[in-house]
Amino acid sequence: MDSADHQAPSFWKRSATRQTARWLGLVGFVAVAWLYLATGLLAPMWAVVVLWVIWVLLLVVLVRAWKTNPWLVLGVPLFAYLIWAAVLLAGEFFLDWTA
Fold first, then answer.
1. Is residue 99 part of a domain?
2. Which range of residues forms the domain containing residue 67?
3. Residue 4 maps to a domain
4. 33 occurs within a structural domain
């Protein structure tokens, strides 16, 4: 294989594109934080604390990937949303959480 095969596409080498991806990921992550805040209305306190610990860990991932991987920064909010939805659905079906 040629070493050029392992390089990022030229589209992602552009500074403006990388910067836009980073900021979109950050905005999405802050939007997901509102869902995590509202979880206290739907779940017991222990579940809220667990979800916030996960959110903070994902924030660490986002900050560490900020300079090196804009794809990961874009994916963190989606992953955070999927975790939140899975926890609430599991709580509703298996633990009888209700609003």
1. no
2. 12-94
3. no
4. yes
User: Exposed (0-12), middle (13-18) or buried (19+): which is 70, by Cβ within 10 Å?
Assistant: buried
Q: Supply 48's token pair.
A: 């809220």
37-75 per-position pLDDT tens digit: 999 998 999 999 999 999 999 999 999 998 888 889 999
Position 99 pLDDT exceeds 90: no
Give dist(CA 8, CA 61) in Å, integer: 20
- pTM for the full model? 0.79
Written as one string, the DSSP assignment of 50-86 is HHHHHHHHHHHHHHHHTTT-HHHHHHHHHHHHHHHHH
The rounded Cα 44 to chain-centroid distance in angstroms is 22
Give CA–CA dist 70/25, Å, rounded: 8
